[in-house]
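Renewal narrative, Specific Aim 1. Our central claim is that a sequence can be written position by position from structural information alone. The example that follows is taken directly from our test logs and has not been curated for this report. It begins with the structure tokens describing the chain, in the order in which they were read.
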């Protein structure tokens, strides 16, 4: 089993920064892409950013320049640095991992989600 544990959410004032972390633990897995998604109350879950093993990153257009995703592959951890936060950034932020599970010569693709961490930006 693979587990994703997020941390770093909380309450922050408009314009402030916040940094989220997500660590993957378990055995028999190789992470391909890790990313962050968010879901505001009454809205659908949306992409925030993703980062591949090779360092390729992808951002929601509206968040480019304010949010930065990074990974520590040795620690199976992904970070999301959020700057200049706005009230509309308020949401539950979910970590996601697209990975391979298995051992030896048998591997299969799988996907995991964290439990989510609340980010609230006060105006």
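The sequence written for that structure reads:
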């Amino acid at each position: 089993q693979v587990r994703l544990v997020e941390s770093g959410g909380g309450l922050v004032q408009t314009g402030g920064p916040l940094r989220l972390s997500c660590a993957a633990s378990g055995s028999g897995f190789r992470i391909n892409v890790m990313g962050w998604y968010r879901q505001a109350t009454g809205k659908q879950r949306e992409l925030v950013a993703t980062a591949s093993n090779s360092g390729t990153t992808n951002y929601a257009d509206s968040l480019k320049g304010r949010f930065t995703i990074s990974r520590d592959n040795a620690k199976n951890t992904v970070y999301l640095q959020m700057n200049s936060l706005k009230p509309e950034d308020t949401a539950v932020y979910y970590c996601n991992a697209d990975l391979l599970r298995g051992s030896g010569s048998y591997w299969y693709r799988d996907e995991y989600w964290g439990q989510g961490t609340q980010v609230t930006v006060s105006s």
